[in-house]
TrEMBL record:
GO terms for molecular function: aminoacyl-tRNA deacylase activity; ATP binding; proline-tRNA ligase activity. GO terms for cellular component: aminoacyl-tRNA synthetase multienzyme complex; cytoplasm. Residues 239-249 have a biased composition (Basic and acidic residues). Pfam families: HGTP_anticodon, ProRS-C_1, tRNA-synt_2b, tRNA_edit. It comes from the Eukaryota. It comes from Trieres chinensis (Marine centric diatom). This is proline--tRNA ligase. Keywords: Aminoacyl-tRNA synthetase, ATP-binding, Ligase, Nucleotide-binding, Protein biosynthesis. GO terms for biological process: prolyl-tRNA aminoacylation. Its EC number is 6.1.1.15. It catalyses: tRNA(Pro) + L-proline + ATP = L-prolyl-tRNA(Pro) + AMP + diphosphate. Residues 296-536 form the Aminoacyl-transfer RNA synthetases class-II family profile domain.
Length: 732
C-alpha cells in the first residue's frame, strides 16, 4: 500500500491559541494522528500551552468566540472494584455525580466509582495523567474500559470537539460524527448519558436525570445483550440482569435501538444500521470488514440469480489466482496507471524479501489474459466466456465505507473474447442488462443505464457502459456496476490471436464486466428507515418471521404447536420463514429486532389468534396490518411478496425521478446540483475532454463559494464538484 497521507495540520495557531515549540513532525507521528490518517477520518491537530485540567484548557486555550459551538472536553478515568474501568468524556461545564452515573449505567450492588491511578491509566490507555481524551480508547486492546460520552457533545449544537491526543500540549479537533466514526472503526461502542451543567441542578435532581433508564442498561450500552466477561470491566451487568432487561423492555422498544435518524445524520445512521442489523462487524485493519451471515445471504441470493442468468448466455464459472506479477500488471500502461495508487504489493515472505514484488489483484485482466492467449488459437475457440466470483483488494485511502468503499470487496467479474466488435458489444449490453436486473428486479433500486464518457471510461478499455443509482438522502449518484468493451487493446498486449475461417491471423475482441457487494450498501441507503433495514422480498434472508405473544396465561408450550403449524404452511408455500421461539425476549423486543433486520413480513400470533385460527400480518415497508385465517394465510403472504417488491421499487423510482432535472443554461447548473438533483444536460461529445474538466472545476468553485468554504479535503470520498455519470441510452 502507498504511505498514509500527511495529517491536516494547521499552518498557524488559531486566534487565541498560543503557539508552542512542538513541531509538525512531532504531531504528525502522534499515534492518534497516525490512526486518524490511516482510517481516513478528517481532523486537525494543533499545539498549545500544556494544560492538565479542563479548567486550564478553557482559560489558556480559549476557542474563537465566533465558533462558540466548538468545545473542549473534560475527561475522568474512573475505577470501580466490582464493575471495572470507565472513561467519562463530558463538556467542561458538566456536573459529574459518580453516584448518578453508576445508577444510569445500571451498575448493581455497591458502586464506588473513584479516580483510577496514573499507573492504571498508562497501562490501559497508554497516556499520562492530564493527557487523556476519548481517542485514547484505541489503546484499550483488551476492551477493559467503558467509554461514557456526554450526550451534549453529540448534539446538533456542537460542531467541533477538541480533545488531547495522548499529550497535554496539543488538541485534536473532530466533528461529533467523525468522533463516532473513529469509535466505530476501532471497535468501541460508547455509552451516551445526559450530564447537567454545573449549578444547573441540585445533586439529587442530577442523579434523577442521569437515572432516566430506571436502573437498566442504556439503550446504546455496549454488550447490553451479553454476559459480563471476567476482566472485561465496563460495568456489564450479569446475564440474569440482562435477561430481566430484555423481558421488561417496553413494547416498541429495544435495548439496541438506532441512535441516529436518517434525515439528521445520514452517515452515522448508515453506520448504526449495518452494525445493529447484524450485516457488518468491524475489523482491526482499516477498510476491511466482516460480512456477517445476514449480509452474506443477500450476496448469495444475488449469486444464485446471476449464475442462472449467465449460464443461459453460455458463460462458465472459473477461478484464477489472487496474485499477479509486476511484469504482467504493468504490461498495459493505461490500465496499470488507472489502478496504480490502489495496488497492494507483497514484498516479503517470512523473514526474507521477495526478489520481485507481487501485486494482490485489483482486477483480473492481466491475470486471465495470458491464459486466454494459450487457449485461443482458432475461430472455433471463440467465443470464450468466463466468469469468476472472487475478492479484490484496492488500497483506498479515501474514507472507507462498508459495502460502498472498502479495501477488500467481493465481486463477480466476467471476461469474454469474441471474433468481432459487434459480438463483443452484444455481450457488453447483455451483461449490463443483468446488472439492471440485479438492481431493479432483486434490490428494487432504479438505475439509469448509459455510456461512460471517454474521461470516465475503464482504464485501457475501448468503451464503458454503466448503471447509475441515486441515493436520495445524500443527493448523490453512485456507480452501480459497469460493463466494458475492451476492444483489441488487451488482445494486442497479451497476444490473444486466432486464425479466422480464411486462415488469416486476427486479434480477439474482448469484454469485461463486474458487480460488487456495493449493491448491498446501495440497497440499504435507498430503502432503509429510522427503524433499520427494509429488505425487498427477492433477496431477504427471511421473508416472514412468526412472533408468538406469550404470557403466563398462554405459554410457549400452548402457543408453540400452532406457530409450528403456521411455519410449516409458509415453508410449503415456498417462503423463507422462521418461528422466533426464544423465550428470553418479549414480543416488543422481537418486533424491533426483526424490523431492524428488515424482514418484509411479521406474523403475530396470540391466544385469540390461536382460538380463531388466524394470525395478524404486519408489512415492514408500509406498516400495513391485517388479520388472515390460517387456511389462506400462507398463500396470502406468498402473494404479498411480489406486491411488496413492486411497491418498494415504485416508491424508490418516484423519488429518483423527482430529482432528475433538465438544464440547458450554465447559471442553472450548480443551483440544481445543490438541490440534490441529478442534472441532464446537452453533451458536446467525448472529444471535448477539456470542457468536461472545465465543468468539474467551475462547479467546484461555485459550490464552495455558495457554501462560504475555501476548499475541500482531498481525502474526502466525495466532492462538491459535478461528476459526469453517463450518457443515458434513453435519450430525450
Amino acid at each position: 500500500p502507498s504511505p498514509a497521507p500527511p495529517s491536516r495540520m494547521s499552518e498557524e495557531a488559531t486566534e487565541g491559541i498560543a503557539a508552542m515549540s512542538v513541531s509538525d513532525s512531532d504531531l504528525s507521528s502522534n499515534p492518534i494522528v497516525v490512526k486518524l490518517d490511516d482510517l481516513g477520518i478528517p481532523h486537525r491537530t494543533y499545539s498549545h500551552v500544556p494544560c492538565v485540567t479542563a479548567e486550564e484548557l478553557v482559560t489558556n486555550v480559549p476557542l474563537d468566540p465566533a465558533t462558540t459551538n466548538e468545545t473542549h472536553t473534560k475527561n475522568l478515568f474512573l475505577k470501580d472494584k466490582k464493575h471495572g474501568l470507565f472513561l467519562l468524556t463530558v463538556k467542561p461545564d458538566a456536573e459529574v455525580n459518580t453516584k448518578a452515573v453508576g445508577k444510569a449505567l445500571g451498575l448493581e450492588g455497591k458502586v464506588n466509582l473513584r479516580l483510577a491511578t496514573e499507573e492504571l491509566l498508562n497501562e490501559t490507555l497508554g497516556c499520562a495523567k492530564g493527557c487523556v481524551g476519548p481517542l485514547a480508547v484505541m489503546n484499550d486492546t483488551e476492551k477493559k474500559v467503558t467509554l461514557v460520552l456526554d450526550e451534549r457533545l453529540l448534539s446538533s449544537d456542537v460542531t467541533k470537539i477538541h480533545s488531547h491526543p495522548l499529550r497535554n500540549d496539543a488538541s485534536t479537533v473532530l466533528t461529533p460524527a467523525d468522533l463516532r466514526a473513529f469509535l466505530d472503526k476501532v471497535g468501541v461502542e460508547p455509552t451516551v448519558l445526559p450530564f447537567p451543567r454545573q449549578g444547573e441542578e441540585k445533586e439529587e435532581e442530577g442523579a434523577a436525570n442521569a437515572a432516566k433508564w430506571d436502573g437498566k442498561a442504556p439503550a446504546n450500552r455496549p454488550h447490553a445483550d451479553k454476559p459480563a466477561k471476567k476482566g472485561g470491566g465496563g460495568g456489564q451487568p450479569q446475564q440474569k440482569k440482562d435477561n430481566k432487561d430484555r423481558k421488561t423492555a417496553k413494547k416498541g422498544e429495544t435495548l439496541l435501538a438506532l441512535r441516529w435518524k436518517k434525515s439528521e445524520n445520514f452517515a452515522m445512521w448508515y453506520s448504526d444500521v449495518i452494525v445493529l442489523s447484524e450485516m457488518i462487524s468491524y475489523y482491526d485493519i482499516s477498510g476491511c470488514y466482516i460480512l456477517r451471515p445476514w449480509s452474506y445471504k443477500i450476496w448469495e441470493y444475488i449469486q444464485d440469480w446471476f449464475n442462472v442468468k449467465i449460464k443461459e448466455l453460455d458463460v462458465e464459472n472459473a477461478y484464477f489466482p489472487l496474485f499477479v506479477s509486476q511484469d504482467r500488471l504493468e504490461k498495459e500502461k493505461d490500465h496499470v496507471e488507472g489502478f496504480a495508487p490502489e495496488v497492494a504489493w507483497v514484498t516479503k515472505s517470512g523473514d526474507g524479501t521477495l526478489a520481485k514484488p507481487i501485486a494482490v489483484r485489483p482486477t483480473s485482466e492481466t491475470i486471465m489474459y495470458p491464459a486466454f492467449s494459450d487457449w485461443i488459437k482458432s475461430h472455433r475457440d471463440l467465443p470464450l466466456k468466463l466468469n469468476q466470483w472472487s475478492n479484490v483488494v484496492r488500497w483506498e485511502f479515501k474514507d472507507p465505507t462498508p459495502f460502498l468503499r472498502s479495501r477488500e470487496f467481493l465481486w463477480q467479474e466476467g471476461h469474454t473474447a469474441h471474433a468481432s466488435y459487434d459480438d463483443a458489444n452484444v455481450m457488453v449490453r447483455q451483461a449490463l442488462e443483468l446488472y439492471r436486473g440485479v438492481y431493479e428486479d432483486l434490490l428494487a433500486v432504479p438505475v439509469i443505464p448509459g455510456y461512460k464518457t471517454e474521461k470516465e471510461k475503464f482504464a485501457g478499455g475501448y468503451q464503458t457502459t454503466t448503471v447509475e443509482a441515486y441515493i436520495p438522502m445524500s443527493g448523490r449518484a453512485i456507480q452501480g456496476a459497469t460493463s466494458h468493451n475492451l476492444g483489441q487493446n488487451f488482445g494486442k498486449m497479451f497476444d490473444i490471436k486466432y486464425q479466422d475461417e480464411k486462415g488469416e491471423s486476427q486479434i480477439a475482441w474482448q469484454t469485461s464486466w463486474g458487480l460488487t457487494t456495493r449493491t448491498i450498501g446501495v440497497m440499504i441507503m435507498v430503502h432503509g428507515d429510522d427503524s433499520g433495514l427494509v429488505l425487498p422480498p427477492a433477496i431477504a434472508p427471511l421473508q416472514a418471521v412468526i412472533v408468538p405473544i406469550v404470557s403466563k396465561k398462554c405459554t410457549m408450550e400452548q402457543l408453540g404447536p400452532y406457530c409450528d403449524k403456521i411455519l410449516a404452511s409458509l415453508k410449503a408455500a415456498g417462503l423463507r420463514a422462521k418461528f422466533d421461539d426464544r423465550e428470553m425476549y418479549n414480543p416488543g423486543w422481537k418486533y424491533n429486532h426483526w424490523e431492524q433486520k428488515g424482514v418484509p413480513v411479521r406474523i403475530e400470533v396470540g391466544p385469540r389468534d390461536m382460538e380463531g385460527e388466524q394470525a395478524r400480518v404486519v408489512v415492514r415497508h408500509s406498516g400495513e396490518k391485517a388479520d388472515y385465517k390460517l387456511d389462506v394465510l400462507a398463500d396470502t403472504v406468498k402473494g404479498m411478496m411480489d406486491g411488496i417488491q413492486a411497491a418498494m421499487f415504485a416508491k424508490a423510482k418516484a423519488t429518483r425521478d423527482e430529482h432528475v432535472t433538465k438544464v440547458t443554461k450554465w447559471e442553472e447548473f450548480v443551483p440544481e446540483l445543490e438541490k440534490n438533483n441529478l442534472v441532464l444536460t446537452p453533451w458536446c461529445g467525448g472529444e471535448h475532454k477539456d470542457w468536461e474538466e472545465w465543468v468539474k472545476d467551475k462547479s467546484r468553485e461555485e459550490s464552495l463559494a455558495a457554501r462560504g468554504e475555501e476548499g475541500e479535503d482531498e481525502r474526502a470520498a466525495t466532492s462538491v464538484a459535478a461528476k459526469t455519470l453517463c450518457i443515458p441510452f434513453d435519450q430525450p
